[in-house]
Design a protein that fits this description.
This protein is α/β, with parallel strands linked by helices and about 575 residues long. It has helices at about 15-25, 30-40, 45-55, 70-80, 95-110, 130-140, 155-160, 200-215, 225-245, 250-265, 270-280, 285-305, 310-315, 320-355, 375-385, 410-415, 440-455, 475-485; strands at about 1-10, 85-90, 110-115, 140-145, 165-170, 185, 360-365, 390-395, 400-405, 425, 430-435, 460-465, 465-470, 495-510, 515-525, 525-535, 545-555, 565-570.
Length: about 575
Amino acid sequence: MKIERNACAWTCPEGDPALEREIAAALRCSPLLARLLWNRGVRSVQEAERFLQAKLTDLVPPEAFNDMARAVARIRAGLARREKIAVFGDYDADGVSATAILMLFFSHLGAQAQAFLPHRVNDGYGLSLEAVRRMHAWGANLVITVDNGIGSAKEVAFGRGLGLDFIITDHHEAAGPLPAEVPILNPKTPGERYPFRDLAGAGVAFKLMWALARELSGQAKVSEAFRALLLRSIALACLGTVADVVPLLGENRIITHHGLRFLREQESAGLKALKTSACGLDSALRAHDIAFRLGPRLNAAGRLGDPGRALELLLTDDPARAADLALELDKENDRRRRIEEGIISQARAAAVEARRGDTPCIVLANPEWHAGVIGIAAARIAEEFARPTVLIALEGDSGRGSGRTAGGVALHEVIEAARSLLDDFGGHAEACGLRIKAAHVAPFAERLGAIIRARYPVLRETFTADAVMPPDSLTPAIIAECAGLAPFGEDNRPPVFIAERLATVGEVQRMGRTRSHLAFFVRSGRAAFRTVYFGGTADADRIAGPLTFAYEPRLNTFNGAGEIELNLKRIL
């Protein structure tokens, strides 16, 4: 089979010139901004205005969910009867944030509510029979799942047999039969009329809290106390939304835009401590900071141990306790990094051998690997070796695996074809999780390789950029328009342009503490532009003119002078 890594194909969306001219005229913006909006799914002037303004009033009313009225009525009845309410969440940042939203609400009301979070290694993902038993033993009358539950028909039926009522709030695809005879709030449920499919688990929890606040206020406009609670909760919803890497478009963009503002102004001791430990006291918080600083700290608690620490941090108003918890999560995140780097180092060495054999995928297993970290490591190996990668943490005669794709392979489809060798499997085109017996690892690797080889005779990377843009066409005004598309994240990345066949000027300099970054100049028109390639040392010998590459423009204002620089993303 052929694996084309260095000859990476690139493409740009074709666009709609007539619509782009209409948007540019109506919004009095540049044609480029109109093209960037089109690339992000905007198909009318009204959509363009909503995208750029990101108003809270453009959020879909929570009552749009099919079962919202049923869910609210059941919770209100439970509150009136002083029932015990169990909130069953997940161990990742989205699940913890969603749990925190509902616990914040029930705490405000003085309700008898208790959070239950699974342990990643001991319990695994989602509602289990043992978790149902624990909540029943606690005395729960009502269980509300957040960020899980849509695939738990058997567990819900078991709990209902014990006398428990359930409300399911989730955002995952329904792979099997739905839980029966219970309210379900999930924008991806078949037949659901809610118009926006891509809410995170925390976004769905926020909508439930909003509907409850309206119900208890007796009107659409909530009371001042509930308004303050909702603003604090939209900050939590922002955390979960960005950390769960859902598309930052539509409602998610609105939640993130306003959530970031409230996170910056947040008075909660826990959120203050998390921001300070992750970004510093005076940092201007961005979505990037949640994705790469705050989110990983919240995830570290659940990856390596008890996710309850992350939940406590989000909810506490005790500055001393918040500082202790933030420090603890800092240490856990550092430990996660060390474990991750160890796995990556071991996997890289094994992957080199696999590459020599020209295998179309990398499947590796090790009893020393931590199940909570292998997903991050698989992503790094898949990117570095341009092959779909599955890493498996073995424990006894079984293992848990996590996979990431590369080379244009639809990972879910090819693993589905080898599913007979797996105990369990779930995922999508880009990523998957699985359970497998240790004895089946080698035959699984062989079969997966054969399937990929047959379906994908060429593994080819394709890079999608926004437009072809010679750097000498850039202006500070254009860069400012690009910045107006923030907050950036999944499906709304910072604008990326293609520079074609530019001459390089002078020597390539190595930068950074580890000398792993490169800096050089390229000539476009009559100007030379400083170009920085972070982590680009492996491509140092490819930097020679004529050079075609993808880049993000930025305005470097060091020492008060504004100079346009290029952040190289990929050599093409």
